[in-house]
Amino acid sequence: MVMMADSARGHPASYGAADLARLTATVEAAVRAVEDPELPVSIGEMGMVGEVSISSAPSDKSGLVYDVRVTLKPTFSGCPALFLIEADVRSAVTHVVGSGANLSLSWDRTTVWQPKEVAPSGRAKLNAHGVVLDAPGEAMVCPYCGSADIEILSERGVALCRRLAFCAQCRTSVDVMGSARGPASLERSGLGQGAGTGKDLGMPGPVPLQLTQHPQS
Ligand SMILES: [Zn+2]
């Protein structure tokens, strides 16, 4: 077999399964490392990265054409940051495989993201940022003092996906993220309008940008 070099990247023209697996792992790592636009945590740590797969076929010019498929899971369907995340993921993938790849990026709206999908490292970073996850079956504790004496003050937090709470112990405001209140957040934001009732809230279709209405920290 004649191995032709890809002029841009130096990859052999024909990839074995092991090579493809290595490339896939590199792409997945790059995707997982993309930072959440709103919080100092990566989308991998947030549990937002689903399947990453790559197949390759020889192009008629030189080297290979990669078909890269990336599935992402939104933490919250109405999240205005999805567009930003998408752009960053595209750029991360392009950085690894080059601009000639066919990238198919999709948001999996068939499953609902759960706070338990956040990695321990991500949880620690969120806590350090004053954000606590509200996971079903888990006691919510203050990220600053560890007290469970937290009261939700408002369903309207600093972002659509967050609520404002207050710790009675250390008297500090706390951002709460997660739990089944996602759809309720969607409803109050107006993003679910026209999408019908509860069953549709997970799949609102095109989501208008609301960045000016809800400036992010
Ligand atoms: Zn506290």
Please state the oligomeric state of the protein chains shown.
single chain
CATH architecture of the largest domain: 2-Layer Sandwich
Strand order in space, largest sheet: 4-7-6-5
Q: Looking at CATH, which topology of the largest domain would you report?
A: GMP Synthetase, Chain A, domain 3
Give the termini separation.
55 Å
Structural class: alpha/beta
Please provide the ordered H/E string of secondary-structure elements: HEEHEHEEEEH
Ligands and ions found: zinc ion
Helices, by number, come to 4
Shape category: elongated
What is the residue-mean pLDDT, rounded to a whole number?
A: 78
Report the CATH C-level class of the largest domain: Alpha Beta
Protein name: DUF59 domain-containing protein
InterPro entries: Fe-S_Maturation_MIP18, FSCA_dom_sf, MIP18-like, Zn_ribbon_PaaD
Topology:
Blueprint: H1 17-32, E1 49-58, E2 64-72, H2 82-97, E3 102-107, H3 120-128, E4 131-133, E5 150-154, E6 162-167, E7 172-177, H4 182-189
Parallel strand pairs: 2-3, 4-7
Antiparallel strand pairs: 1-2, 5-6, 6-7
Helix pairs in contact: 1-2
This protein binds zinc ion.
Structural description of this entry:
This protein has 217 residues and is an alpha/beta fold. It has 2 domains: 17-107, GMP Synthetase, Chain A, domain 3 (2-Layer Sandwich), CATH 3.30.300; 115-192, no CATH class. 23% of the residues lie in helices and 21% in strands. The chain is built from 4 helices and 7 strands, in the order αββαβαββββα. It has helices at 17-32, 82-97, 120-128, 182-189; strands spanning 49-58, 64-72, 102-107, 131-133, 150-154, 162-167, 172-177. The strands form 2 sheets. The protein has a 4-stranded mixed sheet with strand order 4-7-6-5. The longest helix is centred in the N-terminal third of the chain and has 16 residues, at 17-32. The protein is elongated. The structure holds zinc ion (ZN). Zinc ion binds at residues 142, 144-145, 147, 167, 169-170, 172.
